[in-house]
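#structure-requests
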Amino acid sequence: MTGSGEKEALRRTTRITLAGFILNILLSSFKLAGGILSNSNALVADGVHSLSDCVTDVAILIGAKFWTKPSDVNHPHGHSRIETLISGFIGIFVVITSIYIAWKSFGAIMNPAETPPGWPAFAVAVIALLAKGILSRWTLRISRELNSAALAANAMHQRSDALSSIPVAVVVLAARIEPSLIVMDGIGGVIVSLFIFKLGIDIIKPALWQLSDTAAPPEIIEELRRIALSVEGVKNVHDLRTRYQGDGIQADMHIVVDGSMPLEEAFIILKKVEQDLYLMGPGVVDVMVRLEPE
């Protein structure tokens, strides 16, 4: 990524995340206030979920200033793993949030409220569903354009916040129609917590795989091999290794060339292989090619 590209990535990441942060502050305030005033544990739990979005937004706003930096002496391979760490942090924070929501909701099941949640709780849940649904789609689109794992994780977090408002609305509606169903308020909170817990695990998994130097999938490895072999003068490719660097891929390989050709011609072939891997290799951000005479 060029210097101007890194600045543009930082600008767009900051803009979408700041918009999400402001919306999360507003929604969490409305949810918490609406849940307390309307006596809805499910909506309070959902408000805590929205509040957790604010924490992950701050993590991205701070982290983006580092992972978009170009390579330097201390980080010759770039800073993309900082983004992976932020993604992992988001996943861990989501899991912790789900455990807290489950604990509060079990308390509501054991000691249900005496009066059903009010209609304001239903209205807040519906508004939150629409607002966070739009924000999630926007964030996900930007994450794909920038190939940003952290933004993708945040979009998943936002989507979970939107979908978790559905059981809240259903619970409030059921309790208003039939007051004896008020215990469903706590059950709704548990359902929300389970959904959020699974989401957190889904965010953590790819971050752990990337940090543990997991190789690229077989189909990508074969594609890299095919690209190298398509360069004229390359007789064979072996010792092809890959690992993730953030969402990008590091690759190194040995290429076999005619042992009788001049060294200068061999290096021209090597540079052509590197160039093609950068241009056509799926997600390739770093390449090292070694020469080997036939």
